[in-house]
Automatic annotation (TrEMBL):
GO terms for biological process: gametophyte development; root development. Gene3D superfamilies: 1.50.10.20. It comes from Asparagus officinalis (Garden asparagus). Heterotrimer composed of the alpha subunit RGTA, the beta subunit RGTB and REP; within this trimer, RGTA and RGTB form the catalytic component, while REP mediates peptide substrate binding. This is Geranylgeranyl transferase type-2 subunit beta. Residues 4-301 form the Prenyltransferase alpha-alpha toroid domain. GO terms for molecular function: metal ion binding; Rab geranylgeranyltransferase activity. Its EC number is 2.5.1.60. The lineage of its organism: Eukaryota, Viridiplantae, Streptophyta, Embryophyta, Tracheophyta. The keyword Ubl conjugation does not apply. Keywords: Metal-binding, Prenyltransferase, Repeat, Transferase, Zinc.
């Protein structure tokens, strides 16, 4: 079997864009704060977070902060959004520096996006999606501020997005999709509400995502893609059904998507690598206890030593 090219992946992450070994490259322009979170978390799983200067990262993250409202933008000068606010909080958690935040203010921003029916909008423009329920709940839990929202309503909204096949969609009636299932199961796990899930029914739907080539897809009839090694596996672990897939075959699929020369992992074999799929591949292997990797928490998407507090 191929091996995980850890050193090459570290080099790839550090050299993104500028092809130079500094943190700036990782944080620049198009990758923005989500990319920084995925890249830094991957470095941490590979035991190489020490290759970046925490002060540099933290000061850049705080430049994305909007003091007026308490939210974070995706880059300096960009509008605030829940997706970016979660990434910012996760990055600060990675460095154990949540203390630089006014947690009260950030949690008021997040809580302000909860709607009457318990759902969450992503930002002031109002789009509603279970992705944002996850972002809000994960973020507030890291900040120890879940009491700022109506958790019962938030849970009921997520449950209203459950389908007859056991999966979840982005809004009530929306098609089941592995990405949305991660968000809903993650949010239910964090709030201690997994009793709303039919584990066998959902586990069956999730393990059927494994394709002939060993990779996982996101819904029926779609191609396998390395990112579902994260969305599907983390969900299966949270509902205690991960033994229903063939780990060896999935490991082979992920390792076969590596760029063995220049590092990085792609979504499918022989495609171009990117930082997101590098995270999904490495994190997927970590969930399967591949040797030498830090273990990652399936609900918080942070290394367990970070999520442990
Ligand atoms: C901190 C882990 C973490 C997540 C933050 C952004 C977010 C919360 C969750 C996103 C969940 C999601 C919806 C993921 C799916 C992304 C994806 C690959 C969509 C494309 O799906 P399809 O079915 O296309 O249109 P494919 O490529 O599968 O054929
Ligand atoms: Zn993908």
């Amino acid at each position: 079997m191929d091996e995980l090219e850890s050193d090459k992946h570290v080099k790839y992450i550090l050299s993104i864009e500028k092809k130079k070994d500094d943190v700036e490259a990782l944080l620049m322009e198009h990758l923005r704060i989500n990319g920084a979170y995925w890249g830094l978390t991957t470095l941490d799983i590979l035991h190489k977070i020490s290759a970046v200067d925490p002060e540099e990262v933290i000061s850049w993250v705080m430049k994305c902060y909007h003091e007026d409202c308490g939210g974070f933008g995706g880059n300096i000068g960009h509008d605030p959004h829940l997706l970016y606010t979660l990434s910012a909080v996760q990055i600060l958690a990675l460095f154990d520096r949540i203390d630089v935040l006014d947690a009260e203010k950030v949690s008021i921003y997040v809580a302000g996006l909860q709607n009457e029916d318990g759902s969450f909008s992503g930002d002031m423009w109002g789009e509603i999606d279970t992705r944002f329920s996850y972002c809000a709940i994960c973020c507030l839990s890291i900040l120890h501020c879940l009491n700022k929202i109506n958790v019962e309503k938030a849970v009921n909204y997520i449950v209203s997005c459950k389908n007859l096949d056991g999966g979840f969609g982005c809004t009530p009636g929306g098609e089941s999709h592995a990405g949305q299932i991660f968000c809903c199961i993650g949010a239910l796990a964090i709030t201690g509400s997994l009793h709303h899930v039919d584990r066998d029914l959902l586990g069956w739907w999730l393990c059927e995502r494994q394709c002939k080539n060993g990779g996982l897809n996101g819904r029926p009839e779609k191609d396998a893609d390395v990112c579902y090694s994260w969305w599907v596996l983390s969900s299966l672990i949270m509902i205690d059904r991960v033994h229903w897939i063939d780990k060896d075959k999935l490991t082979r699929f992920i390792l076969n998507c590596q760029d063995k020369e220049n590092g990085g992992i792609s979504d499918k074999p022989n495609y171009a690598v990117d930082v997101f799929h590098t995270y999904f591949g490495v994190a997927g292997l970590s969930l399967m206890e591949y040797p030498g990797l830090k273990s990652i928490d399936p609900a918080y998407a942070l290394p367990v030593d970070v999520a442990d507090w």
